Protein backbone atom coordinates (compact mmCIF):
# COMPACT_ATOMS: atom_id res chain seq x y z
CA UNK A 1 0.00 0.00 0.00
CA UNK A 2 1.53 3.30 -1.06
CA UNK A 3 1.60 6.36 1.20
CA UNK A 4 -1.15 8.89 0.46
CA UNK A 5 -0.49 11.81 -1.84
CA UNK A 6 -1.50 15.26 -0.58
CA UNK A 7 -2.61 18.22 -2.67
CA UNK A 8 -1.39 21.69 -1.75
CA UNK A 9 -3.44 24.34 -3.55
CA UNK A 10 -1.53 27.46 -4.49
CA UNK A 11 -3.78 30.55 -4.36
CA UNK A 12 -1.31 33.08 -5.80
CA UNK A 13 -3.25 33.50 -9.03
CA UNK A 14 -6.46 34.39 -7.26
CA UNK A 15 -4.46 37.34 -5.92
CA UNK A 16 -3.09 38.01 -9.44
CA UNK A 17 -6.66 38.40 -10.68
CA UNK A 18 -7.62 40.66 -7.76
CA UNK A 19 -4.55 42.83 -8.26
CA UNK A 20 -5.34 43.27 -11.98
CA UNK A 21 -8.03 45.75 -10.82
CA UNK A 22 -6.50 46.74 -7.50
CA UNK A 23 -9.64 46.03 -5.48
CA UNK A 24 -10.53 43.44 -2.85
CA UNK A 25 -11.91 40.58 -4.98
CA UNK A 26 -11.47 37.77 -5.72
CA UNK A 27 -10.08 37.18 -2.23
CA UNK A 28 -7.28 34.56 -2.08
CA UNK A 29 -8.13 33.77 1.55
CA UNK A 30 -11.74 32.99 0.62
CA UNK A 31 -10.40 30.82 -2.22
CA UNK A 32 -8.11 29.02 0.24
CA UNK A 33 -11.06 28.29 2.54
CA UNK A 34 -13.10 26.98 -0.38
CA UNK A 35 -10.12 24.84 -1.43
CA UNK A 36 -9.92 23.39 2.08
CA UNK A 37 -13.61 22.53 1.95
CA UNK A 38 -13.18 20.93 -1.50
CA UNK A 39 -10.47 18.56 -0.27
CA UNK A 40 -7.15 20.42 -0.48
CA UNK A 41 -4.74 19.02 2.09
CA UNK A 42 -2.90 22.31 2.49
CA UNK A 43 -2.60 25.81 1.08
CA UNK A 44 0.46 27.29 -0.56
CA UNK A 45 1.10 30.99 -1.09
CA UNK A 46 4.21 32.74 -2.39
CA UNK A 47 4.96 36.16 -0.93
CA UNK A 48 7.20 37.53 -3.66
CA UNK A 49 9.62 40.34 -2.95
CA UNK A 50 7.77 42.55 -5.45
CA UNK A 51 4.34 41.59 -3.90
CA UNK A 52 2.96 41.05 -7.41
CA UNK A 53 0.21 38.72 -6.17
CA UNK A 54 0.04 37.71 -2.50
CA UNK A 55 0.43 40.65 -0.09
CA UNK A 56 1.64 40.83 3.51
CA UNK A 57 -1.97 41.26 4.63
CA UNK A 58 -3.01 38.09 2.72
CA UNK A 59 -0.21 36.12 4.37
CA UNK A 60 -1.18 37.41 7.81
CA UNK A 61 -4.78 36.29 7.28
CA UNK A 62 -3.80 32.91 5.79
CA UNK A 63 -1.58 32.23 8.81
CA UNK A 64 -4.50 32.60 11.24
CA UNK A 65 -7.66 31.76 9.27
CA UNK A 66 -6.80 28.40 7.70
CA UNK A 67 -7.57 25.03 9.26
CA UNK A 68 -5.16 23.08 7.02
CA UNK A 69 -1.36 23.51 6.94
CA UNK A 70 0.04 26.66 5.32
CA UNK A 71 3.08 26.36 3.08
CA UNK A 72 4.77 29.78 2.92
CA UNK A 73 6.82 30.04 -0.27
CA UNK A 74 9.53 32.66 -0.22
CA UNK A 75 13.00 33.66 -1.36
CA UNK A 76 15.90 33.14 1.05
CA UNK A 77 16.16 36.79 2.10
CA UNK A 78 16.42 38.38 5.54
CA UNK A 79 13.09 40.18 5.07
CA UNK A 80 11.23 36.94 4.28
CA UNK A 81 12.96 35.05 7.06
CA UNK A 82 11.80 37.66 9.60
CA UNK A 83 8.21 37.38 8.30
CA UNK A 84 8.26 33.57 8.47
CA UNK A 85 9.64 33.65 12.00
CA UNK A 86 6.78 35.97 12.98
CA UNK A 87 4.05 33.90 11.28
CA UNK A 88 5.48 30.44 12.08
CA UNK A 89 3.74 28.63 9.20
CA UNK A 90 3.57 24.84 9.11
CA UNK A 91 6.06 24.82 6.22
CA UNK A 92 8.45 27.21 4.53
CA UNK A 93 9.42 26.45 0.94
CA UNK A 94 12.49 28.31 -0.28
CA UNK A 95 12.44 29.21 -3.95
CA UNK A 96 14.78 31.18 -6.20
CA UNK A 97 13.34 34.50 -7.29
CA UNK A 98 14.19 36.88 -10.09
CA UNK A 99 12.12 40.00 -10.57
CA UNK A 100 11.89 39.74 -14.34
CA UNK A 101 10.63 36.14 -14.40
CA UNK A 102 6.94 35.39 -14.95
CA UNK A 103 7.01 32.47 -12.51
CA UNK A 104 9.60 30.47 -10.56
CA UNK A 105 11.64 29.30 -13.52
CA UNK A 106 14.39 27.14 -12.08
CA UNK A 107 15.32 25.32 -8.92
CA UNK A 108 17.27 26.68 -5.99
CA UNK A 109 21.08 26.43 -6.04
CA UNK A 110 21.72 24.52 -2.83
CA UNK A 111 25.01 22.73 -3.55
CA UNK A 112 26.89 25.99 -4.14
CA UNK A 113 25.38 27.73 -1.11
CA UNK A 114 25.32 25.06 1.56
CA UNK A 115 26.78 27.13 4.39
CA UNK A 116 24.55 30.17 3.77
CA UNK A 117 21.38 28.08 3.42
CA UNK A 118 22.20 25.93 6.47
CA UNK A 119 22.44 29.14 8.54
CA UNK A 120 19.30 30.51 6.92
CA UNK A 121 17.10 27.50 7.66
CA UNK A 122 18.32 26.81 11.21
CA UNK A 123 16.11 29.45 12.94
CA UNK A 124 13.11 28.46 10.79
CA UNK A 125 13.49 24.86 11.92
CA UNK A 126 13.86 25.98 15.54
CA UNK A 127 10.63 27.97 15.17
CA UNK A 128 8.88 24.73 14.19
CA UNK A 129 8.43 25.20 10.43
CA UNK A 130 9.20 22.30 8.11
CA UNK A 131 11.75 23.61 5.63
CA UNK A 132 11.37 22.58 2.01
CA UNK A 133 13.78 23.43 -0.81
CA UNK A 134 12.45 23.82 -4.36
CA UNK A 135 15.11 22.19 -6.53
CA UNK A 136 15.67 20.49 -9.86
CA UNK A 137 15.90 16.69 -9.81
CA UNK A 138 19.69 16.89 -9.76
CA UNK A 139 21.55 14.48 -7.43
CA UNK A 140 23.98 17.26 -6.37
CA UNK A 141 21.14 19.48 -5.22
CA UNK A 142 19.28 16.61 -3.56
CA UNK A 143 22.34 15.44 -1.62
CA UNK A 144 23.18 19.01 -0.57
CA UNK A 145 19.59 19.50 0.65
CA UNK A 146 19.86 16.43 2.87
CA UNK A 147 23.27 17.55 4.16
CA UNK A 148 22.07 20.95 5.33
CA UNK A 149 19.10 19.53 7.23
CA UNK A 150 16.09 20.32 5.04
CA UNK A 151 13.06 18.19 5.92
CA UNK A 152 11.58 18.29 2.42
CA UNK A 153 12.61 18.78 -1.19
CA UNK A 154 10.07 19.89 -3.75
CA UNK A 155 11.13 18.74 -7.21
CA UNK A 156 10.53 21.27 -10.00
CA UNK A 157 8.31 19.62 -12.61
CA UNK A 158 8.15 22.68 -14.92
CA UNK A 159 10.62 21.53 -17.60
CA UNK A 160 8.91 18.13 -17.84
CA UNK A 161 5.47 19.75 -18.16
CA UNK A 162 6.78 22.19 -20.82
CA UNK A 163 8.34 19.35 -22.86
CA UNK A 164 5.09 17.42 -22.63
CA UNK A 165 3.00 20.41 -23.82
CA UNK A 166 5.47 21.09 -26.66
CA UNK A 167 4.94 17.52 -27.89
CA UNK A 168 8.60 16.61 -27.25
CA UNK A 169 7.86 13.04 -26.24
CA UNK A 170 11.46 11.82 -25.88
CA UNK A 171 12.57 14.83 -23.85
CA UNK A 172 9.47 14.54 -21.66
CA UNK A 173 10.20 10.85 -21.06
CA UNK A 174 13.81 11.66 -20.15
CA UNK A 175 12.76 14.41 -17.74
CA UNK A 176 10.15 12.17 -16.15
CA UNK A 177 12.81 9.48 -15.59
CA UNK A 178 15.04 12.14 -14.00
CA UNK A 179 12.22 13.21 -11.68
CA UNK A 180 11.47 9.63 -10.67
CA UNK A 181 15.14 8.85 -10.01
CA UNK A 182 15.45 12.10 -8.05
CA UNK A 183 12.42 11.19 -5.95
CA UNK A 184 13.94 7.78 -5.16
CA UNK A 185 17.30 9.30 -4.22
CA UNK A 186 15.74 11.98 -2.00
CA UNK A 187 13.47 9.48 -0.28
CA UNK A 188 16.45 7.18 0.33
CA UNK A 189 18.29 10.08 2.01
CA UNK A 190 15.39 10.56 4.42
CA UNK A 191 13.88 13.63 2.74
CA UNK A 192 10.13 13.97 2.25
CA UNK A 193 9.52 14.46 -1.46
CA UNK A 194 7.08 16.96 -2.96
CA UNK A 195 6.70 18.05 -6.57
CA UNK A 196 5.13 20.92 -8.43
CA UNK A 197 5.02 23.48 -11.22
CA UNK A 198 3.01 23.34 -14.40
CA UNK A 199 0.96 20.30 -13.41
CA UNK A 200 -2.37 19.59 -15.13
CA UNK A 201 -4.84 16.76 -14.42
CA UNK A 202 -3.00 14.42 -16.83
CA UNK A 203 0.48 15.30 -15.60
CA UNK A 204 -0.55 15.08 -11.93
CA UNK A 205 -2.00 11.63 -12.66
CA UNK A 206 1.32 10.60 -14.22
CA UNK A 207 3.64 11.96 -11.51
CA UNK A 208 1.38 10.46 -8.80
CA UNK A 209 2.71 7.07 -9.93
CA UNK A 210 6.04 7.86 -8.22
CA UNK A 211 5.33 6.37 -4.78
CA UNK A 212 8.06 8.41 -3.03
CA UNK A 213 6.24 11.67 -3.77
CA UNK A 214 4.02 12.68 -0.86
CA UNK A 215 2.65 16.06 -1.96
CA UNK A 216 1.91 18.00 -5.14
CA UNK A 217 1.64 21.79 -5.09
CA UNK A 218 -0.56 23.08 -7.88
CA UNK A 219 -1.80 26.57 -8.66
CA UNK A 220 -2.01 28.00 -12.14
CA UNK A 221 -3.87 25.15 -13.84
CA UNK A 222 -6.40 24.84 -11.02
CA UNK A 223 -7.22 28.54 -11.03
CA UNK A 224 -7.36 28.49 -14.86
CA UNK A 225 -9.75 25.53 -14.97
CA UNK A 226 -11.81 27.09 -12.19
CA UNK A 227 -12.81 29.77 -14.74
CA UNK A 228 -14.71 27.02 -16.57
CA UNK A 229 -15.77 24.53 -13.91
CA UNK A 230 -15.43 26.38 -10.60
CA UNK A 231 -12.66 26.00 -8.03
CA UNK A 232 -14.36 23.31 -6.02
CA UNK A 233 -14.90 21.08 -9.09
CA UNK A 234 -11.35 21.70 -10.32
CA UNK A 235 -9.92 20.61 -6.97
CA UNK A 236 -12.12 17.53 -6.83
CA UNK A 237 -11.05 16.57 -10.37
CA UNK A 238 -7.41 17.07 -9.46
CA UNK A 239 -7.73 14.92 -6.34
CA UNK A 240 -9.42 12.21 -8.43
CA UNK A 241 -6.63 12.33 -11.05
CA UNK A 242 -4.02 12.04 -8.30
CA UNK A 243 -5.84 9.09 -6.74
CA UNK A 244 -6.00 7.34 -10.13
CA UNK A 245 -2.25 7.80 -10.58
CA UNK A 246 -1.59 6.56 -7.05
CA UNK A 247 -3.69 3.47 -7.65
CA UNK A 248 -1.53 2.73 -10.70
CA UNK A 249 1.59 3.16 -8.53
CA UNK A 250 0.30 0.28 -6.42
CA UNK A 251 -0.26 -1.76 -9.59
CA UNK A 252 3.26 -0.81 -10.88
CA UNK A 253 5.00 -2.13 -7.76
N1 LIG B 1 5.63 24.82 -6.27
C1 LIG B 1 6.44 25.90 -6.24
C2 LIG B 1 7.63 25.87 -5.35
C3 LIG B 1 6.14 27.05 -7.01
O1 LIG B 1 6.95 28.11 -6.98
C4 LIG B 1 4.97 27.05 -7.79
C5 LIG B 1 4.61 28.26 -8.59
O2 LIG B 1 4.31 29.32 -7.77
C6 LIG B 1 4.15 25.91 -7.76
C7 LIG B 1 4.53 24.80 -7.02
C8 LIG B 1 2.87 25.85 -8.53
O3 LIG B 1 3.10 25.93 -9.89
P1 LIG B 1 1.85 26.12 -10.86
O4 LIG B 1 1.24 27.43 -10.50
O5 LIG B 1 2.48 26.09 -12.21
O6 LIG B 1 0.93 24.96 -10.60
Condensed summary:
The chain has an 8-stranded parallel barrel with strand order 1-2-3-4-5-6-7-8, surrounded by 8 helices. The chain is α/β, with parallel strands linked by helices. The protein is globular.
Q: CATH class, please?
A: Alpha Beta
Q: Could you give the order of strands across the largest sheet?
A: 1-2-3-4-5-6-7-8
Largest β sheet strand count, sense and barrel closure: 8 strands, parallel, barrel
- Rg measurement, Å: 17 Å
Describe the global form: globular
Kindly state the mean pLDDT as a whole number? 95
Architecture, CATH level 2?
Alpha-Beta Barrel
Span between N and C termini?
A: 9 Å
- The CATH homologous superfamily corresponds to Aldolase class I
Query: Into how many domains do the coordinates divide?
Result: 1
Give unreliable regions as ranges: none
CATH topological fold name: TIM Barrel
Bin the strand percentage: 15-25%
Contiguous helical run count: 11
How many beta strands in the DSSP annotation? 8
Order of helices and strands: EHHEHEHEHEHEHHEHEHH
Helix content: 40-55%
Q: Helix/strand-derived class?
A: alpha/beta
Salient structural properties:
253 residues, alpha/beta, TIM Barrel, eight-stranded parallel barrel, 11 helices, 8 strands, 51% helix, 16% strand, globular, binds pyridoxine-5'-phosphate
